[in-house]
Amino acid sequence: MKLTEKAAYLKGLADGVAYDKTTAEGKLIAALIDMVDEMAKQIEILDETVDELNDYIEEIDEDLGDVEECLCEEDDDYDDCDCCDCDCDDCDCDCDDCDCDCDGDDGEFFEIQCPSCGEIICFDESIDPEELVCPACHEKMACIVDEEDYEELAKEDK
Asked: How far apart are CA 132 and CA 142, in angstroms?
């Protein structure tokens, strides 16, 4: 039974009881029944709107999946770089020498586990550890606060 049908049923019950609508209690009951009826109508409208939006979001999600597939297919063309022997995603060059840092030789990389969600986070020395935010749960990493911890991580990764 829909909410509007339930509201109509309540209104019918109230009319069947034959309460006095001129008393304070009768006016209150009548006002509450009218309010329930209006709320039921508004909720029905909102439900229909939500259903429409869900359908629209599903269409957008499917379209986005198609776009992602198309973009991933294009990225696959760049995986094998002609200018070096790497198989990295960073390399999208048409040049004679590769500037990609796929070997990890251009800088130090660190790996830590997010204390909030457990996700393994990789970052390089250009990122201040005190400003590091987990990409999975978006929590600020409070686990690396002092310089000693940062230096210890650097030693472990070498």
From this structure: 8
Q: Which positions ≥6 away from 46 have C-beta within 8 Å?
A: none
Please name the residue that has the structure tokens 């094998």: 80
What distance in Å separates the CA atoms of residue 151 and residue 58, rounded to the nearest whole number? 47
Contact 141, 155 (CB under 8 A): no
CA distance 124 to 88: 17
> What residue type is 98 in one-letter code?
C
State if pTM tops 0.70: no
| Strand (E) or helix (H) holding 130 | none
User: In this structure, what token pair is assigned to residue 95?
Assistant: 């040049």
* Residues composing the chain: 158
pLDDT of 112 above 60? yes
